[in-house]
Amino acid sequence: MSVRLDARILLVDDDDRLRGRLAVALEDRGYRVFQANCVTAAMAVVPDAPTHAVLDLKMPGGSGLTLIEPLLVALPELRIVVLTGYGSIATTVDAIRLGAVNYLSKPADADMVLAAFVRGDDAPLAEAPEYDPPSLARTEWEHIQRVLDDCGGNITKAAQKLGLHRRTLQRKLQIWPPNR
Amino acid sequence: MSVRLDARILLVDDDDRLRGRLAVALEDRGYRVFQANCVTAAMAVVPDAPTHAVLDLKMPGGSGLTLIEPLLVALPELRIVVLTGYGSIATTVDAIRLGAVNYLSKPADADMVLAAFVRGDDAPLAEAPEYDPPSLARTEWEHIQRVLDDCGGNITKAAQKLGLHRRTLQRKLQIWPPNR
DNA sequence: ACAGAGCGCGACAAAACGCCGCAGCGGATG
DNA sequence: CATCCGCTGCGGCGTTTTGTCGCGCTCTGT
Lengths: 180, 180
Hints:
The structure is a homodimer of 180-residue chains.
Chain A lengths: L7 E5 L3 H13 L3 E5 L2 H5 L8 E5 L8 H10 L4 E6 L4 H10 L3 E4 L4 H12 L14 H15 L4 H8 L3 H10 L5
Parallel strand pairs in A: 1-2, 1-3, 3-4, 4-5
Helix pairs in contact in A: 6-7, 7-8
Chain A binds a DNA duplex (30 and 30 nucleotides) through helix 7 and helix 8.
């Protein structure tokens, strides 16, 4: 199952570059895309009747969580996916309870976004315990990727947010890309 | 806001020790507690009309996720919290969509469980995502704690699941406990 | 009583890390 | 245009952390 081609997708993210990249990728796949960089701009797109929406959580004008309810009131059929820098259980709970169909952590490409919409479409799987604890190296890698993305690829900032030396982050990134 | 004292709490977990500890702690606080160690045993408690439930995800007889729907059909007012070894965004999404009110990662004590029920009671917060990226050391520590708990405190098993040496885990645990 | 599994810990080499400095490279700023 | 500023990539070096052995101890079960 996949997202139907006549879907109209609304992207809400204050990061112009990331949002732009995602928009292009989705348009390349044949979808109609609307963009907004803040909460108010997002509500202004309502008349265009989007069928799907990607909401960033961390925006200057307010969290994407606050958008979910009004959007669903205006467009009850809207399928919302929440996108955030580093996934947290707490915000996941809030997002889903508010009516989002899925939750993604950055970095997320177009295919991941579309897959997230789909998972919301079909019946809940309600299983797949997939219980192998992720290795320490794996969680470290994922967290580094998230923070790096959150810093817009700025290694220096990411390093200090992660609490390690710039040189060390540099070396980790140099050694690890093979796993990706 | 807190859980009312006449609540009847159902605990479903195959780990007898953990479940037992939680049961005692909840009973000490004055709550009526029912226990079950598998899916079928849990359904057998339905006639006792529990008002709240804590479901473990990883059980031999099947995932706690599969319990959510039938439990809610039988007891529509039931407030369900899902408890799991290491929190995953994917299972959180499934759990909440299936009707759970919250999601917890082990180790979780009685107060955390009760708080989780409450968060399900009041209106969704939908704000304050507290956006400070957790340091690498912090996420490492939390993940280690989860896996360690999942291995029942067995350092040897936890070490190999984490992909590092037993001696190394031992040293990390020796240096860090102050943070806990 | 004995085998098996874990734990705690010492020792030493290998690997990773913190830290300094230097050169190159765009983007502002005057 | 010259200049400053912040970021990157990289080499080197001393320090810290890991990996890997091995030993003795305790606990559990048949």
